[in-house]
Fold:
Amino acid sequence: MAEKSSLKSTIAVSLNNYLDAGAIVAGSAGLAYWKDYLNLTDLHLGWINALSANACGAAIGAIIGGFLADKYGRKFIFTYNLLIYMLGVLLVMFSVNFPMLLAGFLVTGISVGVGVPASWTYISESSEVNNRGRNICISQMSWGIGPMCILLFGTLFAPGGVLFGVVESIASLCGTDMANTAVVNSFSSRVVFLTLFVVAIIAWNLQRQLDESSTFESNKEGSGIVDNIKLVFTNKVAVKTVVFLAVIYLTWNLVASIMGMFMPYIYKTAGGVSDELSNLLSCASWVFVVITTFIISFFVDKVAHRFFYVFGLAAALSAALLVIGGGISSITGIWLFTILWGINNGSSVQVFYALWGSELFPAKFRAGAQGFMFFVVRGASALGGLAFTAVYDGGKGFTLAAYIMLGLLLASLIVGLIGMPNTRGKSLDQITKERYGEDF
Structure:
C-alpha cells in the first residue's frame, strides 16, 4: 500500500479516537445541565459514569468488537459500528428522561469500545514498516484533538458563552419553554453532542470506503471466534504479552482517568484560579498533547521506543512530584503542571500500548487480544475511580492521592522498561514469526 494511501486511511480511522475522547469529555462536561434538567441524583450520575465511553460501556464493546473484527474483518466494524455510535448520540440529544439518557451513554460507550481494537489493528496492518509508529501517533493526535475541540465547543455553547444565543434559538425552535432555565441549558449539551454526530457521519462515510486489510484477507480462513478466544488464554507467548501490556496500560490509565477528576481540583483549589482560567488550562493541556505527539510522529520510527516511553513518563512523574511538593500554588507552577501533563499524554504509554498491542499478536487474534485488554483496563479503571473517590474524600486525601498516582506511574515505567519489545523496523509478519513461530 502506498504511503499516501496509508496516511489517508489512517486519518479516516483515527476519527474514531476523536469520537471516543470527544464522547467522554462531552458527557462529563454536560452532566451538570442534565442533572438540573432531569433532577438527577448522585446515584444516577454514578450509573452514567459507570456505563459510559470512559468505563464499562467501552469495556463491553471492546471485548465484543475485537473478536468480531478477527472473524468478520476490520471493514465489517467500520461499515456498521459508527451507525450504532450515531444512534447513541441521538438518544442523548433527544433525551427527556433518565432511562433514555442512560441508554444513550451506554450505546455510545459500547460503540466506542467496539471500534478501538479494529482501528488500531487496521492502522498497523495498513502501514508501511517505517511508518507504523507515525500512523499510530496520528491516531493519538486525534485522541487529543477530540477533547480540545469539545472543551472549546462546550465553552462557546455554555450559558453565558459567545454562542449561547445559537443554543437558545435551537431551543426555541424546538418549542421549549424559554422561562425554564434548566431545560434551555440542557440544549447546550445537546448541541455539543450534535457536533459529535456530524463528525461521526463524516467518519462513517470515509471508513466504509476503505479496502479490507490485506493481512486479514490472507489470514481469515479457519479463524473462529471460540478458537481465537482460546488462543489468547492458552498460548504462553500471548498470555505473557497480554499481562505485560495490560499492566503498563492499566497503571498509566488509572492515573489518566483519575486526573480527569483531579485536575479541576488542582486548578481551582490548589492554584486558586477562576472557572474560566480552569477551562482554558484544561484546553491548553490537550493542545500540548497534540503538539507533543505531532513532533514525536517524525521520530518514533527512527529512534528507540525506550527514549520516548521514558520521556513521557518522566513528564508525568514530574507533574505528580510538583503536586506533592506544593509547587502548584502559583500561576507559574500551574502552567508548568499543565505543560508536563500534556507532554505525558502526548508521549504516553497509550501510544506504545496501541503500537505494541497491534504488533505483538498474530493476525488471527490481533484485534481480539486488544479488545480483551481494553475490556480489563477500562473495567478496572471504572472500579479504580470509585476507590479513588474514597481516598480523595472531597479533597482531604489530596496528597495521598498524588502519592498513589506517583506509585502507579513508577510501576508503568519499571514494567515497561523490563518487558519492552524490539519491534521498530520489523514487519508484522516478521514479528509474528519471531514470537510465535511459523504456525501463525
